[in-house]
Amino acid sequence: MLKRNIQIACEVAKVSRSGYYRWLKHCHEPEKDHEDYLLIKEIFEKGKRKYGWRTIKMKLKMDKKVVMNHKKIQRIMKKYRLRTKIRRVNPYRMIMKKSLEHRTFENLLNRQFTQDIPLKVFCTDITYLPYNHRMAYLSVVKDIATGEVMGWNLSQHIDMDIVMNTIEKMKAHPSFETVTFSDILIHSDQGVHYTHPEYIQAIKELGMVQSMSGKGNCIDNALIESFFGHFKDDMDYKDCKTFNELYSLTEQYMKYYNHERPQWDLKKMTPVMYRNHLLTAA
What we know:
Blueprint: H1 2-13, H2 17-26, H3 34-46, H4 53-63, H5 70-79, H6 91-101, E1 121-131, E2 134-143, E3 149-155, H7 161-171, E4 185-188, H8 197-206, E5 209-212, H9 222-234, H10 243-259, H11 271-281
Parallel strand pairs: 1-4, 4-5
Antiparallel strand pairs: 1-2, 2-3
C-alpha cells in the first residue's frame, strides 16, 4: 500500500521513484555547500552583486585566506542563483566607435556635372526596386562625362556585397584593359556603404579618389538620381514576378542604355558612341 502511495505521489510530482529515494536518503544530511555558499555570498554582496567567479576566487584568497576551485564557485553560484549584473553597452560609446570606423570625404565634385574627359569622374548610388510585394536593390557606377554605366549590381539584400560586387563589375569593364583607375574621382552620398572601411579600402587600393555629397543633399549627386528616374520610367520592373526575371530585364536595359539609347545632351549619340567620340577627339 505504501509503495502504491509513493508511486502515485511521484507521478503527481512528476519525479522518478529513484529520484525520490535519493532525495529521502540525503534530505536530513547537513547541506555540504552551505558554509562555502555563505562565504561566496558575503563577497558577492559586498561587490554589489557585480563580481564574477574570477573576482570571487581572488577575494576568497585575499580576504578570507580560502582557496576554492573555480568550478566549485561556479557550481555554487549557479545553485543559489547568484547572478552577476551584466553591464549594458553604452550606446554613445558604440556611436563614437562607429563614427571612428566610418569616414566621410570632401565634396570634390562640387556639382561640376559638365565633364568632357571620359574615365575621369564617376558617380555611384543605390536605389530601391519594389516588385511582386518584394524589394530589390540596384547599385550603379556611371561615368559623368559620357553617361555610360561602368558597373552595376542587382541584389535582394542591401548589405556591403551590393557595392563591393558593383566595384568588381566596374573593374571588369573593357575600358580598363588599357586604362588604369589611378586618380579617377568617384562621387557618392554619405550612405553607410560608402563610408564603410571595406569600401574605402577597395577604392584606395584601386588608386581612385573619393568624393561625397553634403549630408542629406541629393542635388550633389543629381546625375545618378536622374539616371534612376529614367530607368524606372523606361522599365516595367513592377510587373516582374521573380528576382531572376527582374535581373534579366535589368541586364537588357543596361545594354540598351549604353549601346542603343541616344541622348540629346550627348550629341544624339549613345553613351558608348560618345565615349569613343571623346577619346578620338582627344
